[in-house]
Design brief:
Helix 2 runs parallel beside helix 3 and helix 20 runs parallel beside helix 23. By secondary structure, the chain is mainly α. A two-stranded antiparallel ribbon has the order 1-2. The chain has a two-stranded parallel sheet with strand order 3-4. Helix content is 45%, strand content 1%.
Length: 554
């Protein structure tokens, strides 16, 4: 009986069905190669397996796969494994930047002499070698490389020195030498996995933008619809694994908590910095946010914090308007369609500044109906004259304009808007008849009237208007997915909290928690109440809270 014909690599690359068995086999470094080499999850598993199993890296099948154009990700993973196994790849295997791996220090560290040979034979990899020296504590080799001082190498060295181990003294020496330099340069970029050798930007700071080695231990179990939420992918496998490996919640140390209520230092400590980003976004602090945010990606609940932050800050609103790419990145992490929430927030801030020119019908570009803002009176009440002008120019905004006048108790402006004629304008403004509710029956306007200090006037006026128009005595109940408009901003727009946390988690869990009301910001609920209480509390109270949480220390 003739032996089965071995499928060629080209045919394997054309097969893209998901296979759990092939994922496990690849992660365990087994041969033959997966049959479904066109499947993205299987490919990630193969990259991860390659980085951990030298037998797979040395196999003839892998050597053949690496000869195919467009499969350089496997070539890089194979070369990384060989280096970490103290084998310097042949020159033809690693001649171009496309075949040179970025991370050559995880999951294993090579001997110092191996890294020295890599730097000698492949000068374009000197910074990868320098980073490996920071991890392993190879101070002598690091100094031989004569590299520009790079923040990512400094952060890696600092982390390795703090973690202890046989190379901690060398790592400390590398860190101190970089910090003593008069200028640092952004050569390595862990976000886009690039190395800028020609013109690295000077003046780089330690900004907690490094995927330090310890963070690479986290794993997410493979599955058919695998999607990683990691910020970094320096190993090019997105942290895929056989099982989930969690590093545990990142609790802010006391010196890190202090950064929430103090000017940022030139160089940040080793930290996750997510809570710093979220707090800056929520408070509309554009200076802190612009420095801290992660380029090209978004942290969980960043959108939820940024929407109220834009309402609070003119500077944040104008900066984001000039950077639509950042708005897209932030929205895409949650729901790409919610980028309009940021646009609405920007328009709202301008209205609160009494500038409505961008919303007028003849403005260029024209602002469509779905980008018209709702919360145009919180946290700043606009002029009642401006509300009248806006209501006249954009009939679709009469509800929020009238409501703003109720909130500010501008009775004359409220009356003027309520008396404005013309249902036809609503059609021209993009609101269909089925969408429109007569102002007198608007449930959100009614809610504001009932909460007003001048409640008697506004409630009775709305009731009178409904009667005159032959409308039902009670406001419309057609709320659908707009319950958030029932909120009274001055009551819930920026809430405090009575829950004192013993520790602040360096994550979105400090601003969004189980059982939380999703609030007024288009159901994008987030609040800084618990964070602010922690910052304001005395050490004794925090210590008691930690004891109640079941932990006395970090």
């Amino acid at each position: 009986m003739a032996a089965a014909t071995k499928p060629d690599i080209a045919s394997l690359l054309g097969q893209s069905a998901f296979s759990a068995a092939e994922c496990e086999s690849a992660l365990q470094g087994r041969t033959p190669l997966p049959q479904q080499l066109g499947n993205s999850v299987v490919r990630l598993c193969l990259v991860s397996g390659l980085r951990r199993h030298v037998t797979l890296a040395r196999s003839a099948e892998m050597a053949e796969l690496c000869t195919y154009e467009g499969q350089e990700v496997f070539t890089r993973a194979r070369n990384a494994r060989l280096i970490m196994s103290n084998e310097v790849p042949a020159r033809e295997q690693m001649m171009t930047a496309a075949t040179q791996p970025y991370c050559i220090w995880h999951p294993d560290v090579a001997r110092e002499e191996t890294y020295r040979r890599v730097a000698e034979e492949f000068p374009g990899m000197r910074y990868q070698v320098g980073r490996a020296c920071a991890v392993a504590g190879y101070a002598r080799l690091y100094h031989e490389l004569d590299l520009l001082p790079d923040p990512s190498i400094a952060e890696e060295a600092r982390e390795a020195a703090q973690a202890g181990g046989i190379g901690k003294a060398g790592s400390r020496e590398i860190y101190e030498s970089i910090m003593a330099a008069p200028m640092r340069y952004a050569v390595m970029n862990d976000y886009n996995v690039t190395i800028e050798l020609d013109m690295p930007p000077p003046g780089a700071l330690l900004n907690a933008d490094t995927a330090v080695r310890a963070s690479l231990e986290a794993r997410s179990k493979y599955h058919q619809h695998f999607r990683s939420w990691h910020y970094f992918n320096i190993t090019e496998d997105w942290g895929i694994g056989l099982e989930k490996v969690e590093l545990g919640p990142a609790k802010l140390m006391e010196n890190e908590v202090e950064l929430l209520a103090a000017p940022l230092p030139a160089d940040l400590p080793t930290m996750n910095k997510d809570l710093l980003i979220l707090a800056a976004a929520y408070e509309g602090n554009v200076d802190r946010y612009a420095r801290l945010r992660r380029p090209g990606c978004s942290v969980p609940y960043e959108l939820h914090c940024l929407v109220p932050g834009v309402h609070r800050s003119t500077a944040m609103a104008m900066w984001l308007a000039r950077n639509p790419d950042i708005m897209k990145v932030v929205a895409d992490h949650w729901d790409s369609s919610m980028v309009v929430a940021l646009r609405r927030a920007i328009h709202a801030r301008h209205v609160m500044n009494n500038s409505i020119s961008r919303l007028l019908p003849d403005a260029t570009p024209f602002v469509p109906h779905d980008e018209l803002p709702y919360w145009i009176w919180y946290p700043t009440l606009p002029s009642p004259h401006i509300m009248c002008e806006l209501a006249q120019a954009r009939p679709a905004m009469r509800s929020q304009c009238a409501r703003a006048c109720v909130a500010g108790n501008h009775q004359w402006a409220y009356t003027k808007i309520m008396d404005m004629p013309g249902e036809e304008e609503g059609d021209a403004d993009g609101a269909s008849k089925s969408e429109r509710i007569p102002l007198a029956s608007d449930p959100f306007l009614q809610k504001e009237a009932e909460s007003s200090g001048n409640r008697e006037f506004y409630v009775s006026d709305l009731k009178r208007r409904r009667a005159e128009l032959g409308l039902p005595p009670r406001p419309s109940r057609r709320i659908q997915d707009q319950e958030w408009k029932l909120a009274i901003p001055w009551q819930v727009g920026d809430t405090s909290s009575a829950e004192l946390l013993g520790f602040l988690q360096d994550s979105g869990s400090s601003v969004v928690h189980v059982g939380q009301d999703w609030g007024m910001w288009e159901c994008l609920g987030a609040e800084l109440g618990r964070v602010r209480l922690h910052l304001s509390s005395q050490p004794e109270a925090i210590a008691r809270a930690r004891k109640e949480e079941g932990g006395g220390g970090c």
